[in-house]
Amino acid sequence: MRKIIHVDMDAFYASVEQRDDPSLRGRPVVVAWRGVRSVVCAASYEARKFGVRSAMPAVRAERLCPQAVFVPPDFVRYKAVSKQVREIFLRQTDLVEPLSLDEAYLDVTAPKTDLPSATAIAETIRAQIRDETALTASAGIAPNKFLAKIASDWNKPDGQFVIRPHQIEAFLTPLPVSKIPGVGKVMQTRLAALGIATVGDLRGLDAETLQREFGSFGQRLHLRAQGIDERAVEPDQPVQSISAEDTFAEDMLLMELEPAIRQLAEKTWNATRKTERVGRTVVLKLKTAQFRILTRSFTPESPPASLEELTEIALSLRERVGLPARTRYRLVGVGVSGFREREELEAQGNLFGS
After folding, report:
1. What mean pLDDT value characterizes the chain?
2. Is 103 assigned a catalytic role?
3. Please, which pLDDT band fits residue 352 given cuts at 50, 70 and 90?
4. Angle at 282 between CA 233 and CA 274, to 5 degrees
5. Which of 246, 319, 334 lies closest to 283, judged by CA?
6. Burial of 129 by CB count in 10 Å (0-12 exposed, 13-18 middle, 19+ buried)?
């Protein structure tokens, strides 16, 4: 039985800005570049009261909260603080799996310290983060990664929540299925058509039915409904690819996919800003109405330098699909792969540029 902690910094980018600029404290802060195509990187809790959320178009955030203070992101500072926080994690265990600059999984089944429990370790980590960075973090403690991630959101901000093995079934049963990673609005609609609204409802469906309805994802749904997640914490796994995808309520023609591709490109671009590595290859993924999966990719001479560049490449990849114009698609995804360390890419650029 593993002991897993998921630590999630509270409104990380916005909190760093408020920490470093006292005039921003207590005010609704939105970390984003201004502009029609910009998306929100982070929102302070004061801004979230108005409905502002990460990955939301900046223009919508401005409409929801006209009094918000917009601050351009400073990833150099955020990465420096993230490094401080990671060093705090490593005092307790070497099994640390960063998900982004502001969150990570820790396996504390066999910790470095003599603290009596995973709960005590989480409390110590959060206290050290507060003392050494003047920021707050929330934590979830559970027997696996799936449950720990849900738990870390339970007492936000600046709190923690424990799910013990004997509590798993009672905890999961009333939760909406949207709490399961990968269950977005489209999947919620499809599950609702089967009479599924909660994890308890989902548990009532057998694995065969779920797999018939949702393919390989159906098997994952079955396991998560039981609270099962066998994934190990994998330390220092470099980012290889980042993507976002969406399954449509109704199948669509290729020419109709531009709005979805633009939206997914924004999500992917925003996610790439959270890693220190740089991706070069842009990937367009499609699934036809007959469940045939296609991918088309392009690697420019230098990595996409802006959301606009990423979006234009993704849109242009439609020209290479090569299927009849009447073909309909049930899913589209936009991704970036071929990630390398920034220093490695810069060295390559200097080499070939000399």
Report:
1. 90
2. yes
3. very low
4. 45
5. 334
6. buried
Q: What is the pTM of this model?
A: 0.71
d(CA 168, CA 140) in angstroms, rounded, equals: 13
Report the alpha-carbon distance of residue 304 to residue 338 in Å, rounded: 12
What is the band of 353 on the pLDDT scale with cuts at 50, 70, 90?
very low
The residue count for the chain: 354
Q: How confident is the model at residue 345 (pLDDT cuts 50, 70, 90)?
A: low
> Could you tell me the CA-to-CA distances from 116 to 127, 144, 163, 227 in Å, in that order?
16, 19, 17, 25
Which residues are within 8 A (CB) of 58 and not within 5 positions of it... i.e. 6 or more apart?
A: 30, 32, 33, 34, 35, 38, 39, 40, 70
pLDDT 10s digits, 38-90: 788 899 999 999 999 988 888 999 999 999 999 999 988 998 999 999 999 99
| Six token digits for residue 236 | 């220092």
For 86-143, the pLDDT digits (tens) are: 999 999 999 999 988 899 999 999 999 999 999 999 999 999 999 999 999 999 999 9
Provide CB contacts within 8 A for 117, sequence distance 6+: none
Catalytic, out of 17, 46, 97, 103: 103
Please name the residue that has the structure tokens 């738990």: 151
Q: Is 322 left (phi over 0), alpha (psi -120 to 50) or beta?
A: left
| CA distances, 205 to each of 67, 182, 185, 219 (Å) | 47, 18, 20, 11
For 282, counting Cβ atoms within 10 Å of its Cβ (0-12 exposed, 13-18 middle, 19+ buried), the class is: buried
Whole-number Å distance between alpha carbons of 323 and 137: 49
62, burial (CB in 10 Å: exposed 0-12, middle 13-18, buried 19+): middle
CA 139 and chain centroid, separation: 16
Find tokens 């507060």 and name the residue. 130
